[in-house]
Amino acid sequence: MTAPRVIDGTADILILCDHASNAVPPDVDLGIDPALLGKHIAVDIGAAAVTERLAAGLSAPAILATVSRLVIDLNRESDSPGLIPHVSDGHHISNNTAADRAERIARFHAPYHAAIAAEIRARRPNLLVSVHSFTPRLELHDGNDRPWEIGILYNRDARASRLGIAHLTAAGIVTGDNQPYSGRVLNATMNRHAEANGIPYLGLEIRNDLIADAAGATRWTESCSHLVTSVRDHLAQGGWRGS
Q: What is the rounded distance in angstroms from the CA atom of residue 188 to the CA atom of residue 116?
C-alpha cells in the first residue's frame, strides 16, 4: 500500500492534489521510456508545489497523491476505462494492458479516497479545493493552444465555482469556465467527496507553464489564496455552513 501524503492544518478548508506525484513503485513496470515521467501525462506539473504553499499559507489540511496517474488515475471512478491508462496523449503505456486492476485499486486508489473521506468525517470542511494543472498544448494530433491561465471545473454544484470565476475574471485573469476540461465529465474526486457530501468546492486547473518553477508556483499560490479565501468568506456570508 502507498499511503497519500497528509499535511495537517486547522482551517475549514481541505485541499486535494490527485496528480501530485510521478512516482512509480519499483515493482510496477509500465513498459515506458522513463523520460515520459517528466511529462504532463505522468504528473500535474507544479500542482504539488502550489498545494503545499497554499496549505501552508492558509493553515489548511491537504492530501496529496504519492503515485503517478500512469499507475492509476486517482481522479477516476474505480470502474472507469481510463483508471489504468493504456494510452495517454498518444503515448502507449504498454504494460498497463496486463495490470491487475483490483490490486492497483486496493493498493493505491482505495487508500487515497479513504484518507479524504476520513478527513471530511473528522473536520467537515466548509470548502474543498482540488488543485490540478494542464498543459498549454496537447501533443496528440498537434493540439490547439489553450489560452486559459486557470480553469475552474464543476459538475452540478456550481456555488463556489461561480464565485471563483467572477473573482478571477475581475482580477483580469484569463479564466476557463469548465475549460480546458468539463467537470461534468472529469470530476470524479469532487463528485465523490464534495458533491456527494453537499460541500462546495473549487476544482482548479492551472496552466502548467505558469507554475513549472518556484517563482511561478509562489505567484499563483498568492492568487489562489486570495481566490479561496474570497470564495470561502462569500459562502459563509451567504449563510452556508457545513453540518
A: 13
Percent of the chain with pLDDT over 90: 91
Would you call 63 helix, strand, or coil by DSSP? strand
Question: Following DSSP, what letter does each residue of 162-192 receive, concatenated?
Answer: HHHHHHHHHTT--EEES-SS-TTTS-HHHHH
Task: Sketch the domain layout of the chain as residue ranges.
Answer: 5-237
Q: Per residue in 7-53, pLDDT tens? A: 999 999 999 999 999 999 999 999 999 999 999 999 999 999 999 99
CB atoms within 10 A of CB 144: 9
Contacts of 51 (CB under 8 A, 6+ apart): 15, 16, 17, 20, 62, 64, 131
DSSP 98-167: G--HHHHIIIIIHHHHHHHHHHHHHH--SEEEEEEEE-SB-TGGGPPB---SEEEE-SS--HHHHHHHHH
Report how far residue 208's alpha carbon sits from residue 7's, in angstroms, rounded to the nearest whole number. 23
Under CATH, to which class is 5-237 assigned?
A: alpha beta
Q: Which tens digits make up the pLDDT trace of 173-201?
A: 999 999 999 999 999 999 999 999 999 99
φ, ψ dihedrals at 21, nearest 5° = -130, 150
pTM: 0.95
